[in-house]
Every structure is written in structure tokens, then in C-alpha cells.
Amino acid sequence: MDNNATAQASAKKIILSGIQPTGVFTLGNYLGAVKSWQQMQEEYRCYYFIADLHSLTIHIDPAKRRAQTREAFALLLACGIDPEKSLVFVQSHNKCHAEMGWIMDCCSQFGELSRMTQFKDKSAKHPDNINAGLFTYPALMAGDILLYQADYVPVGADQTQHLEFTRDVATRFNHNYGETFKLPEGYFPKAGARVMSLQDPTSKMSKSDENPKATISILDEEKVILKKFKSAVTDSEASVHYSEDKPGVSNLMTIYSAITGKTMEDITKEFEGKGYGDFKDAVGHAVADELRPIREEYKRLLADRAYLDEEMKKGAERATAIASRTLTKVKKRVGLLLES
Ligand code: ATP
Ligand code: LTN
Fold it and tell me: In 3D, which of 161, 156, 167, 158 has the Cα closest to residue 193?
């Protein structure tokens, strides 16, 4: 890179986001998050990571967690996140996250953490494992974001409260210790879609859903995809119209629109005089066509373990170099005695 190119590259705004290795990404993760992450790579300096430390808040068999972490890394690359353009890494491979997480814990108040809806939802869902990590999860996430001085954080609606919390912690820190952190903003990509469960279109499609018919995994084969769309819950009417009181068909329209770029009106026109059967079939084929190359690339990548390990290592080194600059500053600010 010449000087000009370096200056241009550094003028780019920083995007940062993470995804937990809690299973194969769903169509929701893809259309709502990862697809836009891929599209942002040209315009922004992008940092994406697998949030394996966050996943420790739920119980997963250790061997399964290890496998899922490598798989999630391969999935990101298969979805078009290019390690030559973006920084891609595994959170725990950069030790700054755990260290910064503790410092952020000590800057977070019990009261504000108690108000987090994700904490309330997850503790209601897993009453047998309400661990301290689940409670301080937002502090670790704040550390992830602030370590890299991110400008924008693309997250779904479920994470906006955590982002607000991050801004509050950063503001307080800057006030108490002097200007240290850039305040990150949420980023809501125009094309980002909120995808709902195929069996209960009033709740979001989630990779931890126990009913396999409710979610499309981005690795599902064409036959499976077509079958799941065929049995997707819709209402008893049969016209393809977007409306809040028709969540089932509206969800399918959202998916179809996110993939084809067609507007809701275009879609209604396209299926005028046709039934839900034809529409579900068209959505199924559009999704299958979109996911086929990802599935093939994923299989190829997963078979090349040496390449994946090498990319993880490179990512960890670059991430550590960036994050340790902020961490050193933070340690100085709070009065930790630095090693000489
Ligand atoms: P889990 O079921 O383990 O909680 P999840 O499927 O909800 O996982 P996360 O790892 O929490 O996924 O989220 C990764 C990213 O995908 C986040 O930015 C989140 O907002 C987005 N996302 C998750 N589910 C959907 C969905 N159904 N529609 C759109 N975006 C989604
Ligand atoms: N909590 C997020 C994952 C996550 C994240 C982050 C996202 C962890 N650290 C930092 C953005 C920025 C989730 O569950 N989707």
C-alpha cells in the first residue's frame, strides 16, 4: 500500500460485530446479519469475530463447543467474509477481551445490568443455570466493542439494549478517567431482515430452537429447504399480501424480498391469482439457490483444516495488536501498574 492508500484505508469507519458459536447459522442470522457484514467489507474497515467467551454462559459439551467454534469461523468465510478484506478472529484467541471484560465489569452497575431483557429472558429459559457470566454478559460485550474503537456495530433488535449499555459505560469511563473511548453507534443495514420462525411466525428464527422445522439452517439441502417452506405456518387466506395480521405469509415475503431485492408490491403482483403453494415453492427455490454456493464453499473450507487454523492464527495476531493498544491505555487510566 502506498501512503495515499494507507491514509484512505485508515479514514474508513470501523465496523465490528460478533456471533456466538451456538450452532449452524440460520437463515435469520444470514439475512439479518452476516449477509450485510459481507456487503460492508468494501466501504468499511470490518472486524468480525466468533464470540466463544459469550457462549460460555450456556452449557455446551466442550468437544461440541470446540467443533462449533471452528465451524462458525468456516461459516463466516463461506458466507463471503474475506480474511483479506476483513479481520476475522475467535474472541478467546485475543486475551485482551477477557482482561478488558473484567475492567468493564468493575465499571458496570448492578442496577443497570439487572434491567437487561436478555438476562431476564435467558434466566427464565434456563432457571437451572443463571450464572454470573449471563449477568455480566453486556460488560464483556462492551469491552469487545470499545477495545477496537468501533464506529458502528451492526446488531439485531435483540442487541440494541446492550449497545446502549456500552455507550453508557463508555461515557461514564470517559467522564471519570478522561477521553478514552469512541462512542459506538448501532448500524441497521437497509437490506437487513428480521426473519421469524417458520412454525411460530410471531417469534424470531433462532439457532437454538429445538424444533428443526421452525428454522432453515444455512447448510440445509435443497430438498429439506423446500419441504420446510411447504410446511411453514400461514393463515387460511390465500392471497400474497404483506400485513401485520398475517405474520406467516409476511415472513415469507420478507425472506423472498431480502433475497431477490423485490418490493412487497412486486411480490404481490407476481403471485396474483396464484395460491400459497406456488409462493412457498418460489421462496424455497430462491433460498435454496442463495444457500447452495455457501454450503459448497463451507464443505470445501471445513475439509481444509490447515487453512482455517492459519487464518484463525493470523486473525488472532492482528486483533491482539489492535486491541492491546486500547487495553494498555485503559490500564494506565484506571491506575494498574504496567509491567516494565
Ligand atoms: P441463539 O439462538 O443461540 O441465541 P441467535 O440465532 O439468536 O442465537 P445470535 O448469535 O444471538 O443468534 O445473533 C447473531 C446475529 O444474528 C445478531 O446480530 C442477531 O441480531 C442476528 N439475528 C439472530 N436471529 C435473527 C433473526 N431471526 N432475524 C434477523 N437477525 C437475526
Ligand atoms: N451478543 C451478541 C454477540 C456479540 C457481539 C459482541 C455483537 C458479542 N460481543 C460485540 C456485537 C458486538 C449476540 O448474541 N448476537
Answer: 156
User: Using CA positions, which residue lies closest to atom 23 of ligand 1?
Assistant: 29
Which protein residues are within 6 Å of ligand 1, measured from CB? 19-20, 22, 26, 28-29, 32-33, 155-156, 158-159, 194-195, 204-208
Does the pLDDT value for residue 7 go beyond 90?
A: no
pLDDT tens readout for residues 20-34 = 999 999 999 999 899
Does residue 42 sit within a domain? Answer: yes
Cα–Cα dist 86/205, whole Å: 27
- Enclosing domain of residue 292: 212-298
Whether 76 and 180 map to the same domain: the answer is: yes
Q: Is residue 199 in a domain? A: no
CA of 157: how far to CAs of 108, 189, 195, 225, in Å?
22, 12, 12, 26
- The reply to whether 63 falls in a domain is yes
pTM, to two decimals: 0.92
Q: What is the pLDDT of residues 280-330, one digit of tens each?
A: 999 999 999 999 999 999 999 999 999 999 999 999 999 999 999 999 999
Asked, for residue 339, whether it belongs to a domain, the answer is no
